[in-house]
Q: What sequence folds into this?
């Protein structure tokens, strides 16, 4: 059995558009979106333990280990391993590069990487769909990262179909605020009736497609988001990702991103990323 798996990427995602098309009886919102993987993210390190202990060795401000999606994901997978008669644990270290409350899917991606890596290390042998089902118990974004490629998403975000996306570069601005997702989705002014679209509508669009229905609400509640969007819109189709707070703009060439980065006002953290077609750990999962 392999005992250690270091430098496991947990890539961020961008929502190229995000439409809220309805609301279920249980309160969950019905969405349509395209999830885009990018080559910026957190990094995790794993070591197998033989004592049933799941331990996060990294201190993360504001995230107790017991409530961390990484630890909770590991424990759910551990329950499956125990059904197979295995006594396994893990030491997990997290290099946190993505901002919390940024709409980049950082926590969800960390949990997905945990499920993928420990499924491999513990030799539990679960297929990709089984790992996605475990991830869905913890959050609607987690299945996407296990799915392993860019996707058109429906339902609450868990119904995924692979989709080709432009090979763009992106500039991403962190406005300096952390947005609670629940606050945005529960806002009375959020519209929940955007007309559903088809994959072909997205794939056939010559220019950037759709909008982010959560953006107006988040920008009103958190003015730095509105300021970042307004500033970045002078260079292209800037929009918010997820429920915020991060703002992005696509470009065809890396040099274009570099030129914009050089002019970003100092009150914001900004960085560039490139679109990816597949998750770097997709090769570890079985179809």
A:
């Amino acid at each position: 059995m392999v005992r250690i798996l270091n430098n496991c990427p947990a890539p961020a995602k961008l929502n190229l558009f995000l439409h809220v098309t309805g609301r279920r009886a249980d309160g969950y919102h019905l969405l349509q979106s395209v999830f885009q993987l990018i080559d910026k993210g957190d990094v995790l390190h794993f070591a197998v333990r033989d004592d049933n202990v799941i331990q996060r060795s990294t201190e993360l401000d504001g995230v107790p280990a017991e409530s961390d999606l990484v630890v909770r994901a590991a424990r759910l997978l551990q329950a499956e391993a125990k059904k197979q008669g295995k006594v396994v644990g893990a030491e997990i270290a997290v290099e946190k590069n993505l901002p919390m409350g940024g709409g980049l899917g950082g926590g969800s991606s960390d949990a997905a990487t945990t499920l993928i890596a420990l499924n491999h290390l513990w030799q539990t042998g679960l297929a990709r769909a089984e790992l996605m089902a475990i991830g869905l118990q913890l959050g609607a974004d987690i299945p996407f990262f296990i799915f392993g490629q860019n996707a058109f998403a429906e339902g609450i975000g868990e119904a995924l179909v692979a989709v080709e996306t432009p090979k763009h570069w992106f500039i991403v601005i962190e406005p300096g605020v952390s947005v609670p997702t629940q606050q945005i989705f529960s806002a009375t002014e959020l519209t929940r009736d955007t007309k559903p679209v088809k994959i072909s509508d997205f794939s056939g669009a010559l220019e950037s497609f759709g909008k982010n229905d959560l953006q107006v609400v988040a920008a009103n509640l958190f003015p730095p988001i509105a300021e970042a969007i307004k500033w970045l819109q002078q260079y292209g189709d800037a929009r918010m990702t997820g429920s915020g707070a991060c703002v992005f703009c696509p470009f065809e060439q890396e040099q274009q991103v570099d030129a914009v980065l050089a002019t970003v006002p100092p009150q914001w953290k900004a960085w560039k990323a490139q679109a990816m077609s597949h998750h770097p750990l997709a090769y570890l999962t079985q179809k």
About this structure: The mean pLDDT is 96. The chain has one domain: 1-287.
